[in-house]
Amino acid sequence: MARHLYSCPLRWSDMDAFGHVNNAVFVRYLEEARIDFMFRLAPGEGSESFQGGSVVARHEIDYLRPLVHRHEPVTIETWVTKVGAASLTVAYEVKDADQVYVRASTVVVPFDFDRGRPRRITAEEKMFLEEFRDDADPAAPDAGGRRGTAKEAVAV
């Protein structure tokens, strides 16, 4: 199982009046990491996997500690926890080497915008997603007492 790593820059405008990254901004961070994962790493040269579009059906976010503006980017680790016939669940940790700021998940539905309806996940997409699949609950502690640790990471 591999995990996708996305280096996300922090912007001055991401902060709120309390001096930390606003909770709504984290949704944009997750979107950036998910799009980088699904579109940039889509399988096959010239593949049309994930190119037809997708919609978000659900977000679930646990805010664990405040993140303040700095010049160094934050790492967003992304992996897949579920692949269904017409949906998938992407899990994330927004983190540094020594701490996790946010744990989240998103249910994504591939969508055919020409027909105006959801579509099934193709065999090629499923094969790609399975490379990044980890059924473990990202909120459950591992043997070392840490939560959601990576077994293998793919940096881009």
Automatic annotation (TrEMBL):
Its EC number is 3.1.2.-. It comes from the Bacteria. GO terms for molecular function: fatty acyl-CoA hydrolase activity. Keywords: Hydrolase. Pfam families: 4HBT_2. Transmembrane segments: none annotated. Residues 134-156 are annotated as: Disordered. InterPro entries: 4-hydroxybenzoyl-CoA_TE, HotDog_dom_sf. Gene3D superfamilies: Hotdog Thioesterase. PANTHER family: 4-HYDROXYBENZOYL-COA THIOESTERASE FAMILY MEMBER, LONG-CHAIN ACYL-COA THIOESTERASE FADM. This is Acyl-CoA thioester hydrolase. It comes from Streptomyces netropsis (Streptoverticillium netropsis).
